[in-house]
Design goal:
five-stranded mixed sheet, alpha+beta, rod-shaped
Length: 324
């Protein structure tokens, strides 16, 4: 009879604990994170700065939310020693708290549950040519496409690659940065599913802008043009993007290109008419090149004015300063 009574008592306590867990306010709520709605994180390791919900059955003074410190530890009332939390699963931390409460004679047979209320230890940063740069947490399963979607998707001037970098350590514990280059066309097209990386936190996702060229002078639509398909730009492509030549253009044009570390631009003359008549090969343009088409007289604008026009997006006109 005594054994039967003890068994019934254990069953009753277990049922009460299960009921408490199902109604516990420390489970992840909809307001904690949009990526973690509706579930706890039993398989993810706890990290520094995470907010934990700790429930001790029949002990309201120990039931509380606790933030993991920068040292990876948590501190509970009535316990003299802190408890290591970072690097543990919630179930492992439950065992550590149970052991501490027992060893310090706070409770005889504590029943402890731990849940992650808010995760801050696995940030993923998305920046660059996206619509809404964002920092999110790697809660549950988060892929590269998920992260890009949370950032509002790629902007119109996104380049052909996505750079995913993450800190790692060598055998000698020396920190290194590992960078993966993900082609946008392959990722978005779903041709190669391995490109949709699973993110674990700590990743820095940067979407560089596409290479751009500046077309100024006697063209119909002077301005800045992005080459978003990853292909090489050229004089003929740049002229097509700018609507073609305007009235009274020169037979020659000039490419101004930054080369070396001086920051100045070299002038590269090209035979524009021959290129357009297919009597000379098209000329490749590099990122940040200026293609300038002067008027028929050959009078050209100064570099200062050209670069100023790029900066303010103005069309060259009567305010040009000419050099002969």
């Amino acid at each position: 009879m005594k054994f039967l009574a003890i068994s019934l008592l254990v069953v009753a306590m277990a049922s009460s604990v299960l009921a408490q867990q199902s109604a516990s306010p420390y489970r992840v709520s909809a307001g904690a994170s949009s990526a973690s709605e509706g579930f706890n994180l039993p398989v993810d390791k706890i990290g520094k700065d995470d907010l934990l919900g700790i429930a001790v059955y029949d002990s309201p003074e120990l039931t509380r939310t606790v933030r993991v410190g920068s040292d990876g530890e948590i501190r509970l009332p009535m316990l003299h020693r802190p408890i290591q939390a970072a690097g543990l699963n919630p179930a492992d931390l439950e065992a550590s708290i149970t052991k501490a409460l027992t060893e310090e004679n706070v409770m005889v047979a504590p029943v402890v549950t731990v849940s992650v209320v808010e995760s801050r230890s696995r940030p993923i940063s998305v920046s660059g040519a996206v619509k809404n740069p964002v920092t999110l947490q790697a809660i549950g399963t988060v892929t590269l496409l998920d992260a890009i979607s949370r950032a509002g998707g790629l902007s119109e001037n996104a380049g052909a690659e996505i750079l995913v970098s993450k800190q790692s350590s060598t055998a000698s514990d020396k920190p290194v940065t590992l960078i993966q280059r993900i082609p946008v066309s392959g990722l978005m097209g779903g041709v190669d599913t391995t490109l949709n990386l699973r993110l674990e936190g700590g990743e820095d996702i940067r979407v560089p802008e596409a290479g751009r060229v500046f077309v100024l002078g006697r063209v119909k639509k002077p301005g800045t043009f992005f080459i978003t398909d990853g292909s090489e730009s050229s004089v003929m492509k740049a002229l097509a993007l700018s609507g073609g030549l305007d009235s009274f253009p020169s037979h020659s044009a000039y490419i101004y290109r930054v080369e070396g570390g001086s920051g100045g631009r070299n002038e590269i003359p090209i035979e524009l008419k021959k290129i357009m008549d297919r009597k000379a090969p098209d000329v490749a343009l590099l990122a940040n090149d200026i293609l300038y088409v002067p008027d028929a007289t050959g009078t050209r604008a100064s570099m200062k004015v050209l670069e100023s026009s790029i900066g303010i997006g103005a069309v060259l006109g009567s305010a040009l300063i000419y050099m002969h």
